[in-house]
Amino acid sequence: MPGYLRNLKLWPPSHIMVVTGLRAAWMIVILWYEVCTFDHVLHDCQWPDIHQTDTPSARIARVLVVADPQIADHRSYPMRNSLMKTLGQFIIDLNLRRSWHSTINRVQPHAVVFLGDLMDNGRATMSNSEYNAYAARFFDIFNLRDLSIPTFFLPGNHDLGLGEEVSFSLEAATRYTSHFGPLNHKTTIGNHTVLFIDAVTLVEEDIVRADRGYSYDNWPAVVGGSIDFVKRFAAHEHASPTVLFTHIPLARPLDADCGPLRERGAIRQGHGLGYQNTLSNEASQFLLRSLGPSLIFSGDDHDYCEYSHPLPFPSASGSTAVREITVKSFSMAMGVHRPGFQLLSLISTVPATETLTQLPNSPPSLLDTPCFLPDQLGIYLNVYLPFILLSVLSLLAFNAHRTLAGGNKHAQHQPNVSPRLSHPELSSCRANDDYELYQRPPGQSVMEDNDEDPMLPFPVTKPAGPVYSSKFRGRSSSSSHSWVFHLLGRRRRVSLTLPCLITNRRVQEMGFLRGFFSDVVDVAWPPLLAFCIAAWCTTHV
């Protein structure tokens, strides 16, 4: 082996090497997962219309579709303590802010649609001031008002409450409409008719209709309700394609496949406290028959699903089936590894002057594609947590090695001082702390002249030597300390004997723990600072 390699000291590593190495590793991890990951993941997220052939007369409206953000509050996780609730809410809010900031800057839509469940407990009984603060958090996270982007909202079961649960506020619908807009409404985006159906009240009215034995044709619909809204819309002909937005998915067979992009199982019919997985078969057929939509978007399920519903009759475009896209939840806390959103391109063509109709070779009018966000929970559990454990174990091992090595070196250089046993009442921590032994002469008082000791420094503190008498075995030792001072022109000494609670082993333990925690702080503060700066930059810049 070359001499320079033999002389190169690689082990044990120095304190600077360990701390600096862990700092550098953590900085790389933080910068990648807190700054670069979102841009990296969203790099391939592109509007579906960019792959179409350019048509000079085409007009494109780009719509960002977001489902189930479900802003958490202190009611969201009742089994957790206050600290865990606060920490969980902070992490979820931070992730939503970062996801929204990265998404809106990346895709730059012409309009935004929220598919319901805006707040996790918007339906809960609370004061008006608390609800106002809750809604303000939503608008602060999804900063839309400063962007001047048309935004449309749809109510979900967590916004209004589904059923007659006593914990659901009777004011939930009024509060929702005062902050987010009407329950059922329609608009035009890119020459397409866009319908927003309140599926929650549709389910409740559908249950009453079925219990009373009415069909949809002869049911006296509640004025202003969802069924009434659909019937009034269907009473008029609409030339433009219709896009339907509903929070609750439409019914489908039990074995319906959701496609390869889904993470878990299939959407099955079912219901429980405050929720219903799908609309009933009758309600679904009522919407398909009355509206003849060209495309359907739904939420509530939190996972992605794509299913084609057969239409009772061909739509205006001649299609016999309509695709329904169940959009992934935008939140990391909704049970899916990869949150996401949907991009919708509405393409219309300027009519030809001769025919006032669309050009025969016009591109498809409806295009959509899913986009996925980083697996934030997986980053915390599979990256940060193991790296924290690795860092802690590394610092523990290093400090244990340093303490043991220091103790062995200390023992090798320990002076061999014989204890004085002439004064049996003195006891101390021995030469454990490497102090010079001192013994007060017998018969000398605590407050006594000491002129005969001209070499005694001033001031001085000296622990006395140990006592090895068998009658003191098993007891805690003590330490004697002396202070010398001048008073009234004379030199005097005060001695104080204290129990020795810190033995040599205890000193080493305290040194180990103190060094370990000091190293933890030294390693942790730069990446924590980088995390805070990255969080601020990725949500504000």
Structure notes:
With 541 residues, the chain is α/β, with parallel strands linked by helices. It folds into three domains: 91 residues, no CATH class; 329 residues, 4-Layer Sandwich (Purple Acid Phosphatase, chain A, domain 2); 72 residues, no CATH class. It is 36% helix and 16% strand. The protein is built from eleven helices and 15 strands. The strands form four sheets. The chain has a six-stranded mixed sheet, covered by helices on one side. A five-stranded mixed sheet has the order 3-2-1-12-13, with no helix packed on it. It has a two-stranded antiparallel ribbon with strand order 7-8. A hairpin with a 2-residue loop joins strand 7 and strand 8. The longest helix is centred in the last third of the chain and has 37 residues. About 15% of the residues have low confidence.
Topology:
Elements: H1 3-7, H2 15-41, E1 58-66, H3 82-107, E2 111-114, H4 128-141, E3 151-153, H5 157-160, H6 172-180, E4 185-189, E5 192-197, H7 199-212, H8 226-234, E6 242-246, E7 271-272, E8 275-276, H9 281-291, E9 295-298, E10 305-310, E11 321-326, E12 340-349, E13 366-372, H10 376-412, E14 478-487, E15 490-499, H11 504-540
Parallel strand pairs: 1-2, 2-3, 5-6, 6-9, 9-11
Antiparallel strand pairs: 1-12, 4-5, 7-8, 10-11, 12-13, 14-15
